TrEMBL record:
It comes from the Bacteria. The keyword Coiled coil does not apply. This is Outer surface protein A. Residues 1-21, 37-59, 76-115 are annotated as: Disordered. It is found in: Cell outer membrane. Keywords: Cell outer membrane, Lipoprotein, Membrane, Palmitate, Plasmid, Signal.
Length: 133
C-alpha cells in the first residue's frame, strides 16, 4: 500500500504505518500476526502503539509496541477482553519469552524460545514467579 510505511519489529513482525494522520490526528497502524489482522492508531508515525483484533472464536488479541520499537507484547485473551490466555514478548536478541495462563488468570506455563530455536521451559512456575506455594 502506497499510503503506508512498513516498520520491522522484534520477533520478525512488521507493522504498516499510515503516512498521514486521520481525522482525529492519529496515524493508522496495521499488522498481521498468526494470520490475524490487527488494527490500531498511534500519536507517532514510527510504528509504536497498540493494535487489536478478534479471532473467529471471539477471543481478543492485542499487540503493544514500545515507543522506541525495542519491545513488542503480543497478548491473547478471552472474549471478555479481560482474562489473559497468553503473553509473548519477543526481544531484540530474537529470543521469545511466552507465558500461558489458567482460568483464574494465574501463570500456568512459562517458556522461552531462544534465537536458535531452542525451547526452554520453567517447570515450577507458581512458586518461582508468584512467590506462592
Amino acid at each position: 500500500e502506497k499510503n503506508s510505511v512498513s516498520v520491522d519489529l522484534p520477533g520478525g513482525m512488521t507493522v504498516l504505518v499510515s503516512k498521514g494522520k486521520d481525522k482525529d490526528g492519529k496515524y493508522s497502524l496495521e499488522a498481521t500476526v498468526d494470520k490475524l489482522e490487527l488494527k490500531g492508531t498511534s500519536d507517532k508515525n514510527n510504528g509504536s502503539g497498540t493494535l487489536e483484533g478478534e479471532k473467529t472464536d471471539k477471543s481478543k488479541v492485542k499487540l503493544t509496541i514500545a515507543d522506541d520499537l525495542s519491545q513488542t507484547k503480543f497478548e491473547k485473551g478471552k472474549e471478555d477482553g479481560k482474562t489473559l490466555v497468553s503473553k509473548k514478548v519477543p526481544l531484540k536478541d530474537q529470543s521469545s519469552p511466552e507465558e500461558n495462563f489458567n482460568e483464574k488468570g494465574e501463570t500456568s506455563e512459562k517458556t522461552i524460545v531462544t534465537a536458535n530455536g531452542t525451547r526452554l521451559e520453567y517447570p515450577d512456575i507458581k512458586t518461582r514467579w508468584t512467590g506462592k506455594a
